[in-house]
Amino acid sequence: MVGDLVHYYNIAIELVVSFIALFAITKILGKTLITQITPFDFISAIVLSELVGNALYDSEVGVSSILFALTLWGLLIYITEWITQKFITTRGFLEGKPSILINKGKISFKELKKNHLDLNQLQHLLRSRDVFTMREVEYAILETDGTLNVLKKYIYDTPRRQDKNDVTDKEIYLPLTLISDGEIVWKNLTLLGHSKSWLTLEINKQGYSSVEEVLFGEWLEGEGLYLQGY
């Protein structure tokens, strides 16, 4: 019974000390550790939580060991942040660089590969920014924290400039991806009610000789087929 009380007392002391230490580190290092602006911030947050979590349930680790580990890791983070502020050339390596996934309306296959993204993931990121069709996008920039910022083309910017004098209700359609990574998305093509020969004819009209030459193809009712090559 006494042994259990001592055990819980030690955990309570370690928790309080860890809380104060983590709070102090966060205040010293700034808000970037909380928002995890860079990959390094993300790693730092994970390591700090692991240091505390593992130490709490290791009976051989005392308060002094926890404080030493947190202080040393906090110091390393502080030094790294100081280096990136002092020397601009180190920022790209330590903090990462934003990637332009869509540049002037064109998908950058090179940047997608570099960031280990496929077209489905890009579409998911766009939808999270309330963009449901790629034809609306002029620029899409993947930030170092993994978020996507989108600049729409002028005619699609909010409020819709091409419809500002049109107050009538219009039926809204979801776009259908017909080609992804040079392959036909058969489910959507069947849903649309067309065949491969129709799709081949449509891509030929836009200067492509085969489906394999097309990185991305999307159909939107009322606007037709939108294609981007490699």
Explain what the structure shows.
The chain is an alpha+beta fold and 230 residues long. The chain has three domains: 2-93; 98-163, bsu07140 like domains (CRO Repressor), CATH 3.30.240; 173-230, bsu07140 like domains (CRO Repressor, 2-Layer Sandwich), CATH 3.30.240.20. The chain has helices spanning 2-29, 32-35, 39-56, 63-86, 91-95, 109-114, 119-127, 186-192, 196-205; strands at residues 99-103, 106-107, 137-142, 148-152, 176-180, 183-184, 214-220, 224-229. A four-stranded antiparallel sheet has the order 2-1-3-4. A four-stranded antiparallel sheet has the order 6-5-7-8. The radius of gyration is 26 Å and the shape is elongated.
Q: Main sheet?
A: 4 strands, antiparallel
| Residue share in helix | 40-55%
**Mass-distribution shape:** elongated
Strand content: 15-25%
Mean pLDDT: 82
In what order do the strands lie side by side in the largest sheet? 2-1-3-4
The SS-based structural class is alpha+beta
- Indicate the low-confidence ranges by residue numbers: none
What is the succession of H and E elements? HHHHHEEHHEEEEHHEE
For this entry, give a set of tags.
CRO Repressor; four-stranded antiparallel beta sheet; 8 strands; 48% helix; 17% strand; elongated
Short précis:
This protein is an alpha+beta fold and 230 residues long. It contains nine helices and eight strands.
Task: Break the fold down into its secondary structure elements and pairings.
Elements: H1 2-29, H2 32-35, H3 39-56, H4 63-86, H5 91-95, E1 99-103, E2 106-107, H6 109-114, H7 119-127, E3 137-142, E4 148-152, E5 176-180, E6 183-184, H8 186-192, H9 196-205, E7 214-220, E8 224-229
Antiparallel strand pairs: 1-2, 1-3, 3-4, 5-6, 5-7, 7-8
Helix pairs in contact: 1-3, 1-4, 3-4
Domain YetF-like N-terminal transmembrane: 8-83
InterPro entries: DUF421, UPF0702_alpha/beta_dom_sf, YetF_N
Protein name: DUF421 domain-containing protein
